[in-house]
Write a structure and sequence with these properties.
Structural class: mainly alpha
Strand content: 5-15%
Largest sheet: 2 strands, parallel
Distance between the termini: 24 Å
């Protein structure tokens, strides 16, 4: 996110980096489900064991149709982490993810 102060950073072309930042970057509104899986058809993400495991483990206690603007800080953090973990990344960076968990 920031340019280095010194040294050299080499990044392989086409690398996909996912990051969970300290600041909340969730949309102002929208369902928990849409925030995590986006516009993917339901049969697609329900058929993916990894997505089901992330949903069960992190947001299993939340209604998938709940609006994200009604969630507490910790719930929003879990939704953000779930959104990151269902993505297709080569590298995942977590910036102090347990502050609100």
């Amino acid at each position: 996110r920031y340019a280095p102060d010194a040294g050299k950073v080499t990044v392989r072309g086409g690398i996909r980096v996912g990051m969970l930042a300290q600041d909340d970057d969730l949309p102002e509104s929208g369902s928990v489900q849409h925030t995590i899986v986006g516009d993917r058809p339901e049969h697609e993400w329900l058929g993916d064991a990894r997505v089901r495991d992330v949903l069960k483990g992190l947001v299993g206690d939340l209604a998938l149709d709940a609006d994200v603007d009604t969630l507490s800080g910790g719930q929003r953090r879990r939704v953000a982490l779930a959104r990151l973990l269902v993505g297709d990344w080569d590298v995942v960076a977590l910036d102090e993810p347990t502050n609100h968990l």
